[in-house]
Design brief:
Layout lengths: L1 E4 L3 E4 L5 H16 L3 H18 L1 E2 L10 E3 L6 H8 L10
Parallel strand pairs: 1-4
Antiparallel strand pairs: 1-2, 2-3
Helix pairs in contact: 1-2
């Protein structure tokens, strides 16, 4: 699957990484639900770092549709809340 991190680029991530990504996504959702900006920042950075560490960067000259789109590391609580409002499954479905 192709994961885009806004303002950074895309990573090709094996489907086997979904369970770990979902666990980190749950922490992002929990932080949003409690309006905890400190925890949100930590959880979001952990999620993005996991994508970077398990994924392979997609070259800039390769055109690929993104399967998942994640906010940038500096996204605000309101921006992430808005992204979450479009899905019942968090940032990462599954």
């Amino acid at each position: 699957m192709i994961v885009r991190i806004l303002n950074e680029g895309q990573w090709r991530v094996d489907d086997g990484a979904l369970s770990d990504l979902n666990r980190l996504d749950d922490a992002v959702e929990d932080a949003v639900s409690t309006d905890d900006e400190t925890e949100l920042s930590s959880a979001l950075l952990a999620l993005l770092q996991e994508v970077r560490s398990v994924g392979t960067p997609v070259p800039d000259d390769e055109l690929a549709d993104s399967d998942l789109i994640l906010p940038s590391g500096d996204a605000t609580l309101e921006e992430i809340r808005e992204l979450l409002s479009t899905s019942d499954e968090g940032l990462i479905p599954g």
